[in-house]
Inverse folding.
């Protein structure tokens, strides 16, 4: 059985594929998740991230491909024999058992010793020791969430799977739980595989993020490099916001790339352009754009403010360029006067903050970010 | 690489909840076997025997032979059609009355009872705790000619109203069509209220409030929102009242007189006293078919899966 | 699962000034007509039970216990004084218990098959289960009698028991199936995820969660069996008189007050059981 749990190893997915009828949910996915890391599978609903998770848990059979933990092939292992535990979306706590027995469930099935000690310890970790004899329905959403987590980590699985664990919580509680989850992960040192559609949640917690779309991984990396260096328009749009402007490469000299946008010339580091073609999308993040009253230096373009939204810490502007396209600009509210619609401004940004993407991609890919994807709060009792 | 055979199902990839897929297994059939066998032998087979019996001729002394004598149906119906129609008439009236009384009751329990909900539900099923027959006998006391109920009916001219509707004959309530219909309504009221309650309780209260906002008159809001959403309960409740009421004869026997005889009473008498099995079987089978037709027409809107 | 998000109640009704409401009795009546009908419906439902209880303390003049004569506890002190009544009661209890066991076992198995599996013949099975509930008792009773007569199977206790299991089983299926349908399939997946094999997942999670449905189905089966007159009457003999048959006979010959005592006892016992059950479950839920 799973007594080898804590010695586990890396999680390997090899050419994992899952089809539902003719629909390919997960498409030839290969991935290695190092032991002890906090890994996030990020993507919109229907991208295959939950199906991937369920295949690792053993709740879904892959159509093709293998799943390994260290050297052990667990592809055909029954879910109850895998050293893997899951924190389910909406928690799936057993309504007829109290908190203590919910947490003890896995330990008891494996005939573990010192059940009481272990459960008490983990309840201490999640700071719910005083509620051990309550029933799940008597707990708040946040408390239920922590019990679901405790019920999984008490078994010291090689891999802990979290399926949209914070999806049912309100925003404030979600923020708080993000930090809490990260703390617990650091404390117990287990491999966490976290599925979410919330890019902020993934960036806050994960060491490594895999952005999934249509059953495939679009890009894999640490949060900062994904954000600063998106390689597809989907990633550029799904993780934060991006301004993508159609540009034509005019010269490639040494480290730099010169492009032409409707008569204005921009430069960017050659390494930050993923396309070899001359037609590219030139991208820049809204907060990287400087707003000036006069033209200053290179990478500068004139525009007119068309919309101003005051958000508190920052203000978001829409600035229309001469050829019609609007750019989103975010400026910290550091005391500079708020710009009014109609005002003419010069926009500029560092070449190092510019990135280039293949123009054959859809510039709108990944823009419509799902807020939903939440299962309606049904009654599981 | 393993390629596993897939059960194609309507399962969406992102939906975490889906029924466990199983390959064609013997398990469901093994689970069903004893119960299905019991129903086939003691429900379906008897129906076939009943149909066969209705087409046999002979006598209890000499035995019966299957002669496909369809004429028994004609004879039975010409002799007892009034009891058959009366049964459906009484049952339909009791069903409508049950809905009129039961709907407000179910509505009150579902939406207005607050923390008394469970107590009120217990009160709805509480009558069940005492035997059906004992309670029906209690109505004899309640409706007896010198009791307060009769006095009230006489004093308020309700008695005259009932008389003009031919629901009572003289100046009494007991042993009248009124008493029988009242008894049927009473006896099957919980069968009406419980499905109604179940379907009303499922309605999201926010929908009702939205209805209250959209429509100026509460009745319009009810007609456009609450009533359509409670229809499954209405269908189930009316069926659960109508079907047993149509076959019942305890109320007509204990609360009625010889002119309130219902079809069940005739079937019982033909089987157990007259010992005319073919006639009794023909009547029984006719009742069954008539109800099946009525139910089938009625259920087309709901589907059995929802009722079962 | 119930989360902390309580739906905020936004009342759509316009606030009517209480003073105006009190002034116009018609408005008051219109606003409360539903509640008034509900109260009258409760009176209608419960009046016979009240009469049964009151008349268990009657000392009637004649053979029939229909009109109030004077107060007496004779029937309560001599419950089995009515000849044959306690014997019929014992028979009904015995048949009730056995029929309940039979119907609950068969019905629960069927409910799991229907609630948990997709298989060929499912709609037909649903129809077969639905049919006995859509068939009048007099038809079921008479058709079973025909079967027993034709196959020369003797009538009596065994025949009654067979009939009772038959008409109770559908009700058990429906009750248990509803409970299974309301079960979150993720709970079983969670159990599997937490090292429970199929048997343990069933025994530790599914069964305890379905058990209230099974208990409700069993109670329903018992009350249907215990209360049945029509089907029983078709398949009984003079030596297998159940309690409802005894009451029916008494209604023709003369009703002993003891019948009301039994009716009252049944009512109080069941009420006590329900109240205890409610208390236990609400204690368990233990309002936080």
């Amino acid at each position: 059985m799973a007594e080898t749990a804590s010695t586990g190893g890396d999680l390997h997915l090899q050419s994992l594929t899952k089809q539902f009828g003719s629909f390919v949910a997960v498409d030839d996915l290969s991935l290695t998740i190092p032991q002890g890391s906090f890994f996030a599978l990020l993507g919109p609903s229907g991208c295959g991230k939950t199906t991937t998770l369920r295949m690792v848990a053993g709740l879904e059979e892959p159509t093709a491909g293998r799943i390994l933990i260290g050297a052990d092939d667990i592809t055909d292992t029954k879910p109850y024999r895998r050293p893997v535990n899951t924190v389910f979306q909406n928690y799936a706590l057993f309504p007829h058992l109290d908190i203590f027995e919910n947490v003890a469930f896995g330990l008891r099935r494996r005939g573990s010793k010192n059940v009481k000690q272990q459960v008490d310890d983990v309840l201490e970790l999640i700071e719910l020791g005083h509620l051990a004899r309550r029933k799940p329905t008597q707990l708040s959403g946040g408390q239920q969430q922590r019990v679901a987590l405790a019920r999984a980590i008490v078994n010291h699985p090689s891999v802990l799977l979290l399926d949209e664990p914070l999806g049912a919580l309100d925003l404030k509680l979600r923020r708080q739980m993000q930090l809490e989850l990260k703390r617990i992960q650091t404390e117990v040192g287990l491999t966490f595989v976290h599925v979410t559609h919330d890019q902020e949640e993934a960036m806050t917690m994960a060491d490594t993020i895999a952005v999934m779309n249509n059953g495939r991984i679009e890009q894999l990396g640490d949060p900062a490099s994904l954000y600063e260096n998106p390689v597809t328009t989907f990633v550029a749009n799904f993780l934060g916001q991006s301004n993508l402007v159609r540009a034509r490469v005019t010269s490639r000299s040494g480290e730099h790339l010169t492009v032409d946008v409707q008569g204005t010339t921009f430069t960017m580091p050659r390494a930050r352009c993923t396309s070899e073609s001359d037609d590219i999308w030139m991208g820049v993040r809204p907060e990287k754009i400087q707003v000036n009253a006069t033209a200053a230096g290179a990478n500068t373009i004139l525009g007119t403010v068309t919309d101003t939204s005051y958000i508190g810490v920052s203000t978001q502007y829409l600035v229309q360029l001469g050829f019609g396209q609007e750019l989103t600009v975010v400026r910290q509210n550091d005391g500079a006067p708020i710009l009014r619609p109609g005002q003419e401004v010069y926009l500029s940004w560092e070449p190092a903050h510019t990135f280039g993407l293949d123009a054959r991609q859809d510039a709108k890919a990944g823009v419509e970010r799902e807020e939903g994807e939440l299962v309606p709060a049904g009654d599981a009792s | 690489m393993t390629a596993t055979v897939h059960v194609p199902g309507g399962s969406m990839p992102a939906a975490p909840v889906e029924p466990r897929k199983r390959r064609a297994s013997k398990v469901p059939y093994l689970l069903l076997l004893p119960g299905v066998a019991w129903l086939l032998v003691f429900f379906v087979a008897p129906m076939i025997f009943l149909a066969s019996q209705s087409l046999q001729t002979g006598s209890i002394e000499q035995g019966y032979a299957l002669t496909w004598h369809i004429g028994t149906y004609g004879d039975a119906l010409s002799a007892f059609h009034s009891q058959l129609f009366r049964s459906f008439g009484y049952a339909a009236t009791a069903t409508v009355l049950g809905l009129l009384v039961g709907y407000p009751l179910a509505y009150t329990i579902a939406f207005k009872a607050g923390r008394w909900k469970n107590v009120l539900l217990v009160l709805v099923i509480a009558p069940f705790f005492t035997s059906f027959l004992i309670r029906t006998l209690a109505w004899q006391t309640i409706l007896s000619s010198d009791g307060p109920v009769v006095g009230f009916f006489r004093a308020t001219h309700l008695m005259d109203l009932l008389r003009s509707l031919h629901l009572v004959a003289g100046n009494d309530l007991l042993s009248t069509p009124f008493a029988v219909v009242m008894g049927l309504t009473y006896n099957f009221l919980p069968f009406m209220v419980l499905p109604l309650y179940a379907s009303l309780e499922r309605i999201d209260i926010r929908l009702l409030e939205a209805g209250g906002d959209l429509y100026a008159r509460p009745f319009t809001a009810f007609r456009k929102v609450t009533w359509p959403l409670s229809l499954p309960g209405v269908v189930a409740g009316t069926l659960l009242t109508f079907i047993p009421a149509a076959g019942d004869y305890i109320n007509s026997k204990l609360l009625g007189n010889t002119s309130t005889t219902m079809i069940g009473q005739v079937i019982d008498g033909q089987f157990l006293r007259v010992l005319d099995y073919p006639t009794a079987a023909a009547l029984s089978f006719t009742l069954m078919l008539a109800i099946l037709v009525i139910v089938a027409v009625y259920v087309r809107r709901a589907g059995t899966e929802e009722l079962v | 699962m119930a989360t902390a998000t309580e739906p905020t109640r936004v009342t759509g009704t316009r606030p009517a000034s209480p003073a105006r409401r009190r002034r116009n009795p018609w408005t008051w009546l219109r606003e409360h007509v539903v509640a008034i009908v509900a109260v009258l419906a409760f009176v209608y439902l419960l009046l016979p039970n009240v009469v049964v209880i009151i008349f268990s303390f009657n000392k009637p003049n004649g053979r029939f216990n229909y009109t109030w004569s004077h107060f007496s506890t004779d029937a309560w002190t001599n419950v089995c004084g009515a000849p044959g009544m306690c014997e019929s009661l014992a028979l009904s209890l015995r048949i009730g218990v056995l029929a309940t066991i039979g119907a609950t076992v068969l019905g629960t198995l069927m409910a799991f098959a229907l609630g948990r599996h997709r298989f060929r013949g499912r709609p037909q099975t649903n129809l077969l289960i639905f049919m006995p509930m859509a068939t009048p008792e007099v038809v079921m009773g008479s058709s079973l009698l025909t079967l027993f007569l034709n196959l020369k199977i003797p009538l009596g206790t065994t025949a009654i028991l067979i009939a009772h299991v038959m008409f109770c089983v559908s009700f058990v299926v429906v009750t248990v199936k509803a409970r299974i349908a309301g079960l979150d399939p993720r709970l079983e997946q969670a159990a599997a995820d937490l090292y429970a094999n199929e048997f343990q997942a069933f025994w530790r999670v599914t069964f305890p969660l379905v058990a209230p449905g099974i208990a409700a189905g069993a109670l329903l089966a018992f009350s249907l069996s215990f209360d049945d007159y029509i089907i029983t009457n078709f398949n009984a003999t003079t030596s297998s008189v159940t309690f409802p048959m005894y009451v029916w006979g008494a209604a023709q010959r003369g009703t002993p007050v003891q019948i009301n005592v039994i009716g009252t006892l049944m009512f109080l016992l069941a009420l006590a059981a329900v109240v205890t059950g409610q208390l236990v479950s609400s204690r368990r839920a233990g309002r936080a």
Summary: The domain at 75-307 of chain B is CATH 1.10.3720.10 (MetI-like fold).
